[in-house]
Amino acid sequence: MTRALALAAALLATSALAAEDPAAAAAQAYTFDTSPSTTTAKVGEPGKLVLVIKPKAPTWHVHPQAPLKIHFEAPPALKLDKSDLGRKDAVDPKAEEPRFEAPFVASASGAQQAKAAVDFFICSDAACVKQSRTVAIAVDVK
User: Fold this and answer.
1) pLDDT of residue 22
2) Residue ranges covered by each domain of the chain
3) Among 15, 69, 70, 88, whose CB has the most other CB atoms within 10 angstroms?
């Protein structure tokens, strides 16, 4: 019984701490979706690296006026048209789930891994917290 009470108290303290820590809550308030990216390409063919920021609505949203930048880094086998994107580069800059696309041309075969370094602000009614994350995107070039 004492252990159960101690465990319950610890769980309550942990959840209360999380509720009081906007940074911890913000870090769990969104996901990245890279599934629309080209995952298989042939040498010489174009493809796209795609990143979608998906806030866990309705509580959270990507701040529409705050700075947002994405830096795509790719190996030499994936020649990017543009590696640095901002809010104006979103497919629909007013979308609740901003989508960014970086076209590339595959120049050599093999398993390639690109990365997207993402900086943006995720907000709720209670807080606005800057997020900086890196996500990997795999491309198999044949």
Assistant:
1) 87
2) 29-141
3) 70
Give a three-class secondary structure readout of 48-93. Answer: EEEEEEEECCCCCEECCCCCCEEEEECCCCEEECCCEEEHHHCCCC
- Asked if the model's pLDDT at residue 17 lies above 60, the reply is no
Architecture category of domain 29-141 in CATH: Sandwich (2.60)
- Residue 25 pLDDT > 60, yes or no? yes
Look at residue 93 and tell me whether its pLDDT is greater than 50.
Answer: yes
Q: What burial class does residue 98 get, using C-beta atoms within 10 Å of its C-beta: 0-12 exposed, 13-18 middle, 19+ buried?
A: buried
**pLDDT of 16:** 41
Check if the beta carbon of residue 48 is closer than 8 Å to that of residue 104: yes
Residue 47 and residue 77 in contact, taking contact as beta carbons nearer than 8 Å: no
Work out the pLDDT band at 94, boundaries 50, 70, 90: confident
Instruction: Assess contact for 37 and 139: CB atoms under 8 A.
Output: yes
